[in-house]
Structure formats: C-alpha cells, structure tokens
Design goal:
about 80 residues, extended, about 0% strand
C-alpha cells in the first residue's frame, strides 16, 4: 500500500467513526463525551483532508462544518416551501 492509499484509508476510517458517532448522538443527544469525541474526529478529518490535498490534490468531496442539527432547519420534501 502506497502513501496515498494509506492516507485515504485513514480518512475513510475517521469518516466512518464520525458518522457512527453522529448516529449515536441522534438517539443520545445529551451524551457530552460522544459529542466531544465527534468534534475531535471532525478536527482530525479536516487535518487529514488538508494533508491529503496538499500532497495529492483534491480528494473529490467537500466536508461541511455544520452543526449536527443543521438538517432540521431545511424544509421537508412534503412542505410547500420545498416545492
């Protein structure tokens, strides 16, 4: 495995852990330890993505630094505003 593949694998592992924590926090919103860990993973992901892009170019995705509650502010598909 070359350096690019190893870095991409690390990025994917951190993304997976972040997503799992995000799902956990959907059902356990008051778990402060999990929320702190999620923020740690988000910082780690940003650093790894920056390192990857400096060495190998764009990774092909963007990561939004939004609140984990941002999805609720958008209109739902069945709401009039969305149409």
């Amino acid at each position: 495995m070359n350096e690019e593949q190893a870095l991409r694998r690390r990025i994917n592992a951190v993304k997976f852990a972040s997503w799992e924590l995000h799902l956990f926090l959907d059902t356990h919103p008051n778990n402060c330890d999990a929320a702190r860990k999620l923020e740690e993973y988000r910082r780690q992901l940003a650093a790894l993505t920056k390192e990857f892009e400096e060495k190998f170019g764009p990774i092909g995705e963007t990561t939004a630094n939004t609140s984990r509650w941002a999805w609720i502010s958008d209109p739902w598909p069945w709401e009039k505003e969305a149409n």
